[in-house]
Design a protein that fits this description.
Helices cover 6% and strands 47% of the residues. A hairpin with an 8-residue loop joins strand 27 and strand 28. The longest helix is centred in the first third of the chain and has 10 residues.
Length: 356
């Protein structure tokens, strides 16, 4: 038995442990703990050290170490469906990044480096994760390299998914998103009619407040551009006393995509997605469309070229009567969340350290 255990441990890469029977990397910072599932590379658990509530919950693993999308996962080389021909050749919905095994390259002192190769897309991705030494923050930098001998059209979308005990009908989602479109609107002009965050239209006529979700998920996916230098989104459940948020550069991720899912008449999941596209279609459709609201709906890498993008995720405690986030700012190594209603006395500050 002792020999078997030693051999099993030797099979795990540096920094890896087994969590619920799956290869994982566990990182701890000054205020929070993070678990990364290496069978697909998803961020599956992010919680405060003194509170175990994990907002990043959606689906369960398909099997021990079967690569699958979980919680916060990476959509790469696409967002949405493949073409019929690509699907027949084995391409997955949202791409391959969650369907391959990730490799742990190094891990120490709240930091880790990991990587994956996407064989059909011909892309390689290298990820660096750092936990803030004081606040409940993790910072991610990901570099995608085109290993093909020819140029590559692709998309890259972060897909944080909130659910579980954190998500209720009282959960509020906020963002600095601006003009948007319903994914249910027909091509070639889904931006007609356009909407403005946090509003959307159901069936083209009924106004819907996207901050909230009760028993009706329609419109199911609404995509908005972000026209400030920094993009952000937060989700807060005041009764749970917890807020989760994301911060990124819009030069890297200009789109915010809000996905909503209901089961048995109750909220099941919400996607706080941000990325390089706001059109949920195969590449042939994206290439014809080109841009929406002045923003491209695809990215491009020449042969051998690399591109780096990053984001920060953060947690914060909130009072039980919290009204949601009006804005999020970053300065001097600190992320500040400004509450709706203009009550500066209840601004929340999280120590993040340097981001990028």
């Amino acid at each position: 038995m002792r020999i078997s255990l030693l051999l099993f441990a030797a099979c795990l890469a540096q920094g890896e442990v087994m969590v619920n029977g799956r290869r994982s990397v566990v990182l701890e910072g000054g205020g929070a703990k993070l678990i990364v599932d290496m069978a697909g590379g998803s961020f599956v658990n992010f919680h405060l050290l003194d509170q175990k509530l994990n907002p990043l919950v959606w689906s369960s693993p398909e099997g021990p170490n079967t690569p699958t999308p979980l919680a916060h996962f990476l959509c790469l080389d696409r967002w949405g469906q493949a073409s019929k021909a690509e699907a027949a050749n084995g391409m997955f919905y949202h791409g391959e990044a969650t369907r391959v095994q990730w490799k742990s390259e190094s891990e120490s002192a709240g930091q880790a480096t990991m990587s994956a190769v996407l064989p059909m897309a011909g892309l390689a991705v290298r990820r660096q994760v750092r936990m803030a030494p004081a606040g409940a923050v993790f910072v991610v930098t990901e570099t995608v390299t085109n290993q093909n001998k020819l140029g590559k059209v692709y998309n890259m979308v972060q897909h944080p998914t909130i659910g579980g005990e954190f998500l209720t009908e009282a959960t509020l989602v906020d963002s600095n998103a601006r003009r948007g479109l319903m994914q249910s609107s027909p091509m070639p002009n889904p931006e007609e009619p356009s909407v403005w965050w946090p509003m959307a239209l159901k069936d083209g006529v009924q106004a819907v407040d996207m901050r909230r979700l009760t028993n009706d998920p329609e419109p199911n996916v609404v995509s908005y551009v972000v026209d400030e230098d920094w993009g952000w989104t937060t989700a807060v459940t005041p009764a749970k006393g917890l807020l989760i948020g994301y911060l990124w550069k819009t030069s890297e991720y200009p789109w915010f995509n809000a996905w909503r899912h209901v089961e048995n008449g109750r909220p099941k999941a919400r996607g706080l997605e941000f990325g390089t596209t706001g059109i949920h279609q195969p590449f042939s459709v994206l290439l014809k469309k080109g841009k929406v609201f002045g923003q491209s709906v695809f990215a491009y890498l020449d042969a051998g070229e690399s591109s780096t993008r990053g984001f920060a995720a953060f947690l914060a405690r909130v009072p039980a009567d919290y009204q949601g986030a009006a804005s999020v700012s970053y300065q001097g190594g600190r992320i500040t969340i400004h509450e709706r209603g203009g009550n500066a006395g209840r601004d929340i500050t999280v120590d993040a350290g340097p981001l990028w």
